[in-house]
Amino acid sequence: MARYYFHLRTDSGREDDTEGAEFPSVDAAKAEASRAAREMLSDRVWSGQALFADAFEIATEEGIVVATVPFKSVARLN
After folding, report:
1. Which superkingdom is the protein from (predicted)?
2. Is residue 12's pLDDT more than 70?
3. Helix (H, G, I), strand (E, B) or coil at 2
4. The whole model's pTM is what?
């Protein structure tokens, strides 16, 4: 298993994930980032905060960004 870091990219910069978590693949890390983004969006709807400006940058232990999960990509708008 590899360790991936979910850095939070916002309009004001990047908040680095210093702990990371282990996943069997980049796809598994992306699925977890999508779940976390949906949860954060839900919290923001209730608090009236901006919804779609943020994204998770998924990086390896070496600091290489291997995927990006924009918050707007996980929203279910009907």
Report:
1. Bacteria
2. yes
3. strand
4. 0.80
